[in-house]
Amino acid sequence: MFRRFVRVLLTVVMVASAALVGTVATAGTAQADGCYTWNRTLSQGSSGEDVRQLQIRVAGYPGYGAVLAIDGQYGPATAAAVTRFQQAYGLSADGIAGPQTQNKIYELQDNDCTPVNFTYAEMNRCNSDWSGGAVSASAARANALQQMWKLQALRHALGDRPLNTSSGFRSYSCNSAVGGAANSNHLYGRGIDLVGSPTFCQIVQQARYHGFNEILGPGYPGHNDHAHLGSMSSRYWSAPSCGI
């Protein structure tokens, strides 16, 4: 009986020790992901492709009227965007992208790098290969990915209510078929049209905080039946019926 008790006690100790070792080994380490894995903590002064990948995913948190540069340089603007991202998800808000922040990003993305609530397919209802636009197919697809991460931030700010896209990337032929502007951001993979709920005014008003410097909505010609969000070199907002 005594020997059996000792064996049970040793087993409990070994299991507990293994669990402790596992905890120590993984504490402070971000878990690998099928899309992209960060291998270090990032903070102001960091630079490189890992910073650029981070910037894509926090581009929806630049602050009112701002746009975060995707340049691979971790400066004050990136730190501020990371802080807002952390605040949005209840993390320790220090502007440093360590394991906690990286793991939250892993939770929010699929293995093709798109955020969990958006897909390449809904960003391109024009063709299957992203060709025929104003930029290369790869550039259009990359632009669309950045826009999806901004949409993910917008969606979260609106109470995690679904956002319904009706149009994204367009080739010149697709753009012409729907009467799009000759220089439409849709041709670059940077334009998004949203329909349904939330209301168009809720969408365009909140979008001002999430990296979109092209915002068109109710009251702007041809935009009473949808909200248009995009990115361009300078700001152009117009949704008079929504106070913008």
TrEMBL record:
Domain Peptidoglycan binding-like, by residue range, is: 47-104
Q: Which Pfam families match?
A: Peptidase_M15_3 (PF08291), PG_binding_1 (PF01471)
Signal peptide residue numbers:
1-32
Record domain Peptidase M15A C-terminal: where: 117-229
Q: What is this protein called?
A: Peptidase M15
Entry keyword set: Signal
Q: Could you tell me which InterPro entries the record lists for this protein? A: Peptidase_M15A_C, Peptidoglycan-bd-like, PGBD-like_sf, PGBDSf, Zn_M74/Hedgehog-like
